[in-house]
From TrEMBL:
Keywords: ATP-binding, Kinase, Nucleotide-binding, Serine/threonine-protein kinase, Transferase. Residues 17-303 form the Protein kinase domain. The keyword Oxidoreductase does not apply. InterPro entries: Kinase-like_dom_sf, Prot_kinase_dom. This is Serine/threonine protein kinase. Pfam families: Pkinase.
Length: 439
């Protein structure tokens, strides 16, 4: 039975809203589609047991503070009716034509258009929680039920933001969250939710997106007959064990049952595997060892620019300079199994290798990897000669003037919208950074 009837009127300090229909329900309340003069919105209406004075003041505080970024579907105003003991809040409406729950990715219903879009979604999540934490807030209950994604673009929306609170909780009685995402210290009652526990939850989300499996669900979970409260407490709280723990192999993925992570472990660059090993070994027990958002962003930026295409089957694969350095050869394509006999076109900027493909877009994070928002701004792209597609050039999309030296030794400049033809050994001066082209 719905808490609010169709046609009911809700009021706020902004405007009045008419209830159109229910959209869903959860443990705290029900969500409705509402209409106002300014357009359509969503309202979360709390159950009586959740409509406390503390909750009311918490929502008031969030409304006053405002959304940290556009990714957060943030409370706009408290809404009320003639009830004395219930209330809710109005928020922007998620456009279901474009945004779908991330859970549909793991069920196999939807997939990302490309690895670039998958990584874009990961980067937006990292940047969103960085902005939230920078505001002195923590989310408390990061899980897939609260995450929506545009699978074509990688754009992210984060809902249920009444979970958000100040990163200053002292009492463990304030704990809540979702098993499988909560940090172990929260589950066992040793610490309240905080920025540090958010970082653990974020690492779980990123692992599941990149490896398609949970980092703690291996043989131990498979051998449990009944997944009850005690089982969850052991798996995620008192005895969590990474499925790729380098010392203890008792929780490895079960062959043919839950082993998809092994495939992705074999194709992702070693630096990515190393980062998650840290996150789920030392980072499980020592919050200070968890990767911060800036570290994730640099890692994801590198991963994005390591995407290339198999010369035989055309599918996306990852270039891993460390493997080539160690084995002195390129690994075979994981999709078609054929040997790769030619390195992709690359550009070295500082210590980083940027793989250049026919469709590569270069963002400012190539030049300023420590800037958490640099991935949002294009500064260059690969273009092909209209009559000779085998000839590639780098187009300047920025306001900066680039310089390069021709084969004849002449120095030339490339202004905005200009194109420099690429050749092996070429050095391009971007201002504060130098790029070296390698074929």
């Amino acid at each position: 039975m719905s808490l609010l009837k169709k046609g009911a009127t809700l009021t706020s300090t902004l405007e009045n809203y008419t209830v159109i229909k229910p959209l869903g329900e959860g443990g705290q309340g029900e969500v409705y589609l509402v209409h106002a003069e300014s357009g359509d919105y969503a309202v979360k209406w709390f159950y009586k047991r959740m409509a406390t004075e503390a909750q009311y003041h918490a929502i008031e505080s969030l409304v006053e503070q405002g959304a940290p970024s556009e990714q957060f579907i943030w409370p706009m105003a408290i809404v009320e009716n003639d009830s004395e003991d219930q209330f809710g809040y109005v928020m922007p409406l998620i456009d279901s034509r474009y945004y779908q729950k991330l859970t549909r990715f793991f069920s196999g219903e939807l997939t990302f258009k490309s690895y670039e879009k998958l990584i874009e979604a990961c980067m937006q999540m990292v940047q969103s929680f960085y902005t939230l934490h920078l505001s002195g807030l923590c989310y408390r209950d990061i899980s897939f039920g609260n995450l929506f994604v545009n699978f074509k673009t990688g754009d992210v929306r984060i809902c249920d933001n009444d979970n958000v609170t100040y990163d200053s909780l002292k009492s463990v009685e304030d704990n809540w969250g979702t098993y499988g995402f909560m940090a172990p210290e929260v589950i066992i009652g040793d610490a309240p939710p905080s920025t540090a526990t958010d970082l653990f939850s974020l690492s779980v989300v990123l692992f599941r997106m990149l490896y398609r499996q949970h980092p703690l669900q291996g043989r131990r979970e498979y051998e449990i007959d009944i997944l009850d409260e005690a089982a969850f407490m052991s798996l995620y709280g008192t005895h969590p064990l990474y499925i790729f723990d380098p010392i203890d192999a008792t929780n490895r993925p079960v062959k043919g049952v839950q082993d998809i992570a092994e495939f992705y472990c074999s194709i992702l660059p070693q630096a990515v595997n190393d980062a998650f090993e840290r996150a789920f070994t030392s980072g499980i027990k020592v919050p200070e060892e968890r990767l911060r958002e800036s570290e994730w962003m640099q890692l994801l930026t590198t991963l994005k620019y390591n995407i290339t295409y198999c010369l035989h089957c055309g599918k996306q694969v990852f270039y891993d300079a460390s493997i080539i350095r160690d084995k002195k050869a390129l690994p075979a394509c994981v999709h078609c199994g054929k040997a790769v006999d030619r390195l992709p076109v690359r550009m070295k900027v500082g210590e980083r290798i940027i793989v250049l493909n026919y469709d590569t877009e270069l963002m400012m994070d190539v030049l300023t990897p420590l800037d958490m928002t640099a991935y949002q701004t294009t500064f260059g792209s690969i273009v092909q000669h209209p009559r000779h597609p085998e000839i590639w050039g780098l187009k300047n999309h920025s306001e900066y003037v680039w310089q390069y030296t021709t084969q004849e030794g002449e120095t030339r400049t490339i202004e905005k919208n200009g194109v420099v033809p690429l050749r092996h050994g070429m050095m391009i001066n971007f201002g504060d950074s130098m790029g070296v082209i390698r074929f």
